[in-house]
Every structure is written in structure tokens, then in C-alpha cells.
Amino acid sequence: MSFLPTTKKEMEQAGIKQLDFIYVTGDAYVDHSSFGTAIISRVLEANGYHVGIIAQPNWKNDKSITILGEPQLGFLVSSGNMDSMVNHYTVSRKHRSHDAYSPGGVMGLRPDRAVTVYSNLIRKTYKHTPIILGGIEASLRRLAHYDYWSDSLKRSVLLDSGADLISYGMGEHSIVEIADALASGISVKDLSFIRGTVFKTSRIDYLQDPILLPDYGLLQADKRNYADSFRVQHQNTDAHISKILVESYGSQGYIVQNPPAYPLTTQEMDDIYDLPYMRTWHPKYDAAGGIPALAEIKFSLTSNRGCFGGCSFCALNFHQGRAVQTRSHDSLIREATLMTKDPDFKGYIHDVGGPTANFRTPSCQKQKNRGVCPDRQCLFPRPCKNLQVDHTDYVKLLRELRSIPKVKKVFIRSGIRFDYVMADSSDDFMNELLNYHVSGQLRVAPEHIAAPVLKLMGKPDHKVYESFTKKFDVLNQKTGKKQYVLPYFMSSHPGCNLREAVELAEYIRDMGFNPEQAQDFYPTPSTLSTCMYYTGLNPLTMREVYVPIHPHEKAMQRALIQYKNPKNYELVKEALIRTGREDLIGFDSKCLIRPRDIHAHSNKIGKRHERTHSKKRRSKTTI
């Protein structure tokens, strides 16, 4: 086994005169199955194609894109495992100081809007070589989308990048079809028939039964049009039921989205994860201390893809889809056994999961052949009557992994869906979880406690979370271990006003501890919540939604989650005054903060008492 070539010298050592594809990525080159660059490149290699990697090219230097020569079939372009804008900026649009996907964590080695910049850079030198975009950044920008960082509606990234094609979602199927078509001599301009792709065209009369979305001009003119368009897109993300979507750009032609690629079978997933990954970063990064992102995932196992959880703020519906796809036990055990042979392995498997760790089966039998329902969710607002709730396979898998020699502990860190757990009539999974797979704290994401907010988030009623924590405590007592549920909460989600933020703060007070982290809602492309944020409408109902947009209100909502932090005092105080909740400022155990001007507060209390006694005296006189 060896790394894929990153230099001409490495090409020569591999006996390659010309590469078929060159993969340009915003991440450093890590040859591990948790990195999209490695998966797509190894899949192509397994299908007989020579692939080279240009990782983090200097976008200010035209020659940086020529170091491997011109590929015979095309360039593949991705921002990396993360959207470049999310990688660079916090939700308050401040620059981050650390990039876990770069050597030594150094920031600034990729540009903003990386796929657009890289694609334009390639096109300057290679005028006619096919360029195919992929990965999370391109996938979620495949049609017109709201861009939080510029606060504007942007066109499909295909137009701004000058690329020929987008392979969206998890691209193993589509990238092989693209490669085979190009290798057979078909022009990239004629690749209009591949599932999981988006292309440009000047005419659409040949398309079969397409759905015409509002054109870009209408989207710009009225946000209601964008909400309408997004609803249609949201209903067309399943491979079994989706239709072709068309978005017009007037004189610039059309952007056409083909239906998604079909989900991977278990055998296909096994084949992909059994490919000969080096399982580490390229040696050229050793001097910089390696790639920080590898630390957490090096000894983790991806057991599934897809999620039918349906959280409004999550982009999984548009990227991996709602159909759950799983690897076999044999495949996972092979990878785990391989881990134990790594000299750095200390006996701990850090995670066994995916988007949702405890999803190992389709949501229902219908989903296998007819797809997921376009107009309803599997778990929200309550579990569907057809939902299959079964942890048996996952429990069996965890037991098998624990029994592997040299494995001391198997953790579950990718998160579990607690409402799915509560829908299970058996406690087997919870008992297994608490006895063997929690490292002191179990992370779950109720996100909020106010019913109107939870409804817009696509999360279950708060009573479900409370039932879960009660069951956790009862079953955990039997283990004799000190283990706790660590909830994640989100501030400033569409639909959440200051009063509901105060309600959440009161709940946190009653929990008895203050969260170390608070997540402010981040409007990333292609989520229901982002559509609400931009339009002020719920695209599924077209009803108006309150949206906390002003930075100061967002700061107050975030501060309320961590009201004990002295730095947040003034923001918390202002929020309480604005909502008429001065009763939460004081010395009572139910108060969130104490008054800082104690003398003034005492005078205020004294005057209040004086008014009360005065009223009592007048009352007695009247009697």
C-alpha cells in the first residue's frame, strides 16, 4: 500500500505518466475513510483509474494547480470535509484561529468559498479540461441558496465556479459513472443522465417530467418564491421518489438537478471501507505535527450513513439523505482489528456510529423500495406508527467489538437519538449503553425546551427528553457508576424569542449546572432552518416565523444559556428587564443573577415593603 501521488516524483515512483483525475481539496491529504477526498480517490483507483492529490494549493499562484500536469479525464474539486466558510468563520462572522484539517492546525491555507476559487484557478490554465465539483460545500450550494456570510441569495455554485458538473451527496456511485462516461469518450457537456449530478444546459425540452422551480429572478424579487422553491427541493431528496429539478437563469440557461443516487447497499459500503487506506496523514505533514482532525477519528468506526431524524437545522437531508445505510458486522470488525495493530492504539475505540449512532435499520419496510415519505417525518412530531424501532443489531455489534482482543473500551460519541430510544419497548440498549459505552457523560441534543421552538426545530416535545433522563437515572443507579446526561442547547433558532430564551435559562438553572458550551444557530446553506432565517417563513406551511436576526438579541439569547458566566451578566440583566422578568434578579434560589448594586436593590426592596405595609394600613382603616 502507498499514498496516492501528490508530486511528479511520486507519480514516477508509481509508474504513472499521466493521471486520469486530479483531486484538488481544501484539506490536507489524509488517507483515511473519514475523509471524503480519500474515499472518492480510492473508489476511482479501485475502478482502474489513476488519481493524484493536490491538497491546499496556493490559490494566489497559478502554477500551484499544474504540479501534477493535466489529467486525462478531469479535475475533481472539493473544499474538504467542511464548508470553507464554516471552517473560517464563527456564527458571529469572526475569524477562527484554528483549522483542524490543516497541518499543525494552521489557519489560512484554503480560501473562502474554496470550490469556486479552486475551479476558477484551474480554468485559467486548463480551458477545456472537465471540472467536477463535489463535497459538502458544492453539494449544499447546487441550486440558488441563501448565503449567510454575505447576507444575500447566491446563484448555483456551478455558475460562479465555471465548473462543468456537480456530484452531490455521497458521490461513490456518481463519480464512477462520470469516470466511465468520460473514459468512453463522452463529452462532459453531454453528461446529463447521471443520478446524483447537477449540470448546466441551454435547453430542457428533452428532460422527462421535470419540476420547474421559480427562476432566479423571481427568487430575488420575493422571498416567498424562495420558500416555495425550497419546499419542493426538500420533498425531492429521496432517490426513489425524486424528480428532475430545473432552475432557470434567463439568458445564462438552466441548472438541472438529477434525482439523487441510490443509497449504497451493505456490500457496497463494505467494499468502500475495505479499500487500502493508509489510515494516516501524508508524511510531508510530519514536521508540522500532523493533522489535528485525525486524532478523534483515527480510532473511530463509521457504521452507518443517512438519518431519518429530520432536524430542521441539519443539512443531512440534502447531503446523505434520510435512508439509513449500514456496514456489515464483519467489515466493522475487520477495521477494528486493524486498529488494534496500530502502535498508537491504546485499547479505546472512540466511536461507533454516524450521523445518528443508534440508527442501524431503515425507518420502515416501505422505505427500502418506495423511499421515505416526502410530506412527513419518521420521528416528528411523534414516532410514525410504521416506524421500526430495533436496537438489536446495534447491541450485537457493540458486544462483538468489545470482545476483540486488545480492545478495552468502546465509546459512543457521535450522539444518539433519545426519542428513538424512548420508542423502544426494550431497555437492552440503554442497559448496554450505561454499562459499557459511556465515558462519564452521555451527550444528547434536546436543543431547547419551549414547545414552539422545538416544533420548528423538528425536535420532540420536551416531555420526551425528561422521560429519557429519568430512565437514564433509574437504569444508571443499577450500574453504580457516576454518569450524567450532557444536554446540548441552541440559542437564536428561528421561532425563539427572548421570553423562550429565558424559559430555557430557568430550565438550565433547575438542572443544577451550567453548560460549558452554547451553540448559537448557524444558518448554513440548504437547511429548513436557514430558509426560515432568510425568508421569515416556514417553507413547509408558509406561515410567518419570528427570527432573531439582530446580533445584540442573539448575544442575549446565547448569554442566557450560560447565565452564571460573569462576562454575560449585563446581557442577561438586559434580557430579563426586556422580558419583564426582574423577578429573576435577586437573592432567591430561583433567581438567575444577583443585583450588583446591593444598596440600590435594598432601597428598592424597602420601598416595596413600605408600599405594601401602607396598603395594609389603608385596608384596615377601611374595614
Automatic annotation (TrEMBL):
Residues the entry annotates as binding [4Fe-4S] cluster: C307, C311, C314
Annotated ranges, domain Radical SAM core: 293-567
The keyword Metal-binding belongs to this UniProt entry's keyword annotation: yes
Pfam families: DUF3362, Radical_SAM_N
Basic residues: bias regions: 601-623
Molecular function in Gene Ontology: 4 iron, 4 sulfur cluster binding; catalytic activity; iron ion binding
Free-text cofactor note: Binds 1 [4Fe-4S] cluster. The cluster is coordinated with 3 cysteines and an exchangeable S-adenosyl-L-methionine.
Top-rank taxon: Bacteria
Disordered: annotated span: 600-623
UniProt keyword list: 4Fe-4S, Iron, Iron-sulfur, Metal-binding, S-adenosyl-L-methionine
Cofactor: [4Fe-4S] cluster
HAMAP family per UniProt: UPF0313
Family assignment from sequence similarity: Belongs to the UPF0313 family.
Identification of the protein by name: YgiQ family radical SAM protein
Organism annotation: Blautia liquoris
Lineage of the species this protein comes from: Bacteria, Bacillati, Bacillota, Clostridia, Lachnospirales
